[in-house]
Amino acid sequence: MDTDKEVIGYVIPVFRASHEVVRGLTEAQEEDVTEEGINYVAMRNLFVREAREAMEVKVEKRTRTTHIRESAERMELGKTMEEWAEFRKKMNPDSLTHRPEFIVKPRGQTVWEGKTVKLHCTVAGWPKPRIAWYKNNVLIDAKAHPEKYAVESNYNMHSLEIKNCDFIDTAQYHVSALNVKGEVSSVATIVVKRFQEGKEAGPLDPKPHGFCAEHGVTFETTIIDKFEVAFGREGETLSLGCTVIVYPTVKKYQPEVVWYRNSVPLKPSKWVHTHWSGERATVTLVHLNKEDEGMYTLRVNTKSGFDTYSAYVFVRDADVEVEGVPVAPLDVRCHDANKDYVVVTWKQPAVEGSSSILGYYIDRCEVGTHHWAQCNDSPVKYARFPVTGLVEGRSYIFRVRALNKEGVSRPSRVSEAVVAMDPSDRARLRAGPSAPFTGMIKFTEEDPTVGVVPGEPCDVVVTEATKSYVVLAWKPPVQRGHEGVMYYIEKCISGTDIWQRVNTGMPVKSPRFALFDLAEGKSYSFRVRCCNSAGVGEASVSTGEITVGDKLELPSAPGNPVATRNTDTSVVVIWGASQVKHLVGYYIEYTVVGTDKWMPCNNKPVKQTRFVCHGLTTGTNCVFRVKAVNAAGYSQSSPDSDAVVVQAAISVPGKPTGVSLVEAVKDYMVLFWTAPASTGGADIRGYFVDYRTVKGDVVGKWHEMNHKALTTTSYKAENLKENVFYQFQVRAMNMAGVSKASLASAALECKEWTITVAGAPVGLHVLEVRDTSVVVLWEPPAFNGRTPVNGYYLDVKKASAGEEGWKAAHEKANKMKYMKVTGLKAGTSYVFRVRAQNLAGVGKPSAVLGPILAQTHPGTKEIYVDVDDDGVISMIFECSEMKEGSEFVWSKNYQTITDTSRLTIITEQGKSRAIFNSPSLEDLGIFSCVVTNTDGISSSYTLTEEGLKRLLDISHDHKFPVIPFKSEMAMDLLEKGRVRFWTQVEKCTSACQVEYIFNDVIITEGQKYTMNFDKSTGIIEMFMDSLEITDEGTFTFNLVDGKAKGTTSLVLIGDEFRELQKKSEFERAEWVRKQGPHFVEYLDFTVTPECNVLLKCKIGNVRPETEITWSKDSIEIAEDDEDAQKIERKDVDLTFNIGKWVIKQEKPKEKGKKPTAEDVPPPPRPKISKADAGIYEVFLRDDRGKDKSTFNLTDAGYQAVMNELFRVIANSSSEITVVSTEHGIILSSMVTYYNEELRVGWLQKDAKIAASERVKSGVTGEQLWLKINEPTEKDKGKYTMDIFDGKDGVKRVFDLTGKAWEEAFEEFQRLKAAAIAERNRARVVGGLPDVVAIQEGKSLNLTGNVWGEPVPEVSWTKNDRELVSDERYKLKFEHGKFASITIAAVTTTDSGKYALLVKNKYGTEAGEFTVSVYNPEEEENKEEKKG
Question: Fewer Cβ in 10 A, N or C end of the chain?
Answer without folding.
Answer: C
